[in-house]
Amino acid sequence: MKIDDIAGQTVALTHLKNALKKDQISQAYMLIGEPGMGKKTIAESFAESILCEERKPGEYEHCGKCRSCHQVETGNHPDCIFVTHEKSNLISVDEIREQLVSDVEIKPYQGSKKVYIVPDAEMMNEQAQNALLKTLEEPPEYAVIILLVANADLMLPTLLSRSIKLPLAPLPDQVIEEKLIKDYYIQKYRTSSIVKFARGNLGRAIEMSENDDFIEDKNTASDIMKKVVKTESYQWKDWIDELSKDKVRLPFFLGLFMDWYRDILMAKSGAGRERLMFADEESVITEEAGEYDYEGLKYCIEAIEDAQAKVRANVKLSLVLENLFNTLSLNYGD
Predict the structure, then answer these.
(1) H or E element, residue 170
(2) Distance from the CA of 234 to the CA of which of 32, 157, 184, 315 falls in 20 to 30 A?
(3) What is the largest CA-CA distance in the chain?
(4) What percent of the chain has pLDDT over 70?
(5) Is the CB of residue 90 less than 8 Å from the CB of residue 128?
(6) How far is CA 172 from the centre of its chain?
(7) Does residue 334 register a pLDDT over 70?
(8) DSSP assigned state of 2
(9) What angle do helix axes 173-184 and 188-198 make, rounded to 10 degrees?
(10) How many Cα atoms are found within 13 Å in the side-chain-facing hemisphere of 16?
């Protein structure tokens, strides 16, 4: 994708464009944002411009036509390396050493730069981060390392300090709606509810637009949230069994649970119907806002975030949901 075709992210993209135009490319970048915010798209476009054979001095956009651009787009460029990991929740020190630390000693094959992209960089354990840190202390001039990070709190302070940090911002609803209509051919009558639940995350909006059962799933999520805090734990079994069947879809439901509690927090703060995602459940949301204190809501939101992290870490799904529902119930009525 051309850099100018990337939606939003003006601050991050302006920095990267200026680096390309002035030929002042740093050796370590950290793109920070939740999944779906476009970290990988930005990193790939930036790498393509760095390696483009036809980009002129003072320009930032890659041509998209030369051999190098074609290689990056097809994932076959010898100087554009994506660091991979076998375990879904861990990047080991051996993987960092083999794919980056050792490889970076080899000069570029084709051009003047060699780009390393590390998705899920927060999954590096401490040993892996320290191994990478040693490389960043004295990196070869040709090396550019781009770390894609969902949670910067999991990165070593020393690694943070040696990287150009570029946080990604939520996109305006209008930008997401225009993107869905123009690029994904979603009818306007469907975009309003999707945009509301996307929370500025284009990837999430696209995922919901491709889900024909989105409305049904939204209603299922609200039904569970309404009942789980008013029922005994033995009555949760059917919900837990159903949600545990599909690890791919569970994060989507956890996102909807988060939306539910954010609505409760908004209502408790005095927000009206127009600011609620579950606007059709306004009366229930308002009622529940009176049942929680702010500390209890904080615990509930943190519990959902913890559940999301445990799903990524391959913790048993039924246990994750049982613990989550238990926390939500214990804080209800505070």
Answers:
(1) none
(2) 315
(3) 67
(4) 100
(5) no
(6) 16
(7) no
(8) -
(9) 130
(10) 31
The two tokens of residue 199 are 């929370």
Classify 149 as helix, strand or coil: strand
CA distances to 132, 139, 237 from 135, in Å: 5, 5, 50
How far, CA to CA in Å, does 53 sit from each of 50, 90, 268? 9, 35, 56
Determine the 3-state secondary structure of 164 from DSSP. Answer: strand
Mean of pLDDT over the chain: 89
**Rounded to an integer, what distance in angstroms lies between the CA atom of residue 111 and that of residue 261?**
51
CB 191, CB 180: distance < 8 Å: yes
Q: Rounded distance, CA 29 to CA 145, Å?
A: 6
**Residue 269: closest CA among 294, 296, 287:** 294
The side-by-side arrangement of strands in the sheet containing 143-149 is 80-82, 114-118, 143-149, 28-32, 164-167
Query: Residue type at 81?
Result: I
Amino acid identity for residue 230 in this structure: K
> Phi, psi at residue 50, to the nearest 5°?
-60, -40
- Distance of alpha carbon 107 from alpha carbon 93, whole angstroms: 22
330 CB burial (10 A radius; 0-12, 13-18, 19+) = middle
Query: What phi, psi does 249 have (nearest 5°)?
Result: -90, -20
In terms of Cα–Cα distance, which of 253, 261, 242 is closest to 301? 261
For residue 117, what pLDDT is reported?
97
Q: How far is CA 57 from the centre of its chain?
A: 33
Which are the contacts of 27, defined by CB distance < 8 A and separation ≥ 6? 136, 139, 141, 143, 144, 145
Amino acid at the residue 313: A
Q: 115: which DSSP letter?
A: E
DSSP 3-state of 5:
helix
Quick: pLDDT tens for 224-279.
999 998 899 999 999 999 999 888 889 889 988 998 998 899 888 887 777 787 88
Tell me if residue 103 falls in helix, strand or coil: helix
The amino acid that residue 52 corresponds to is: C
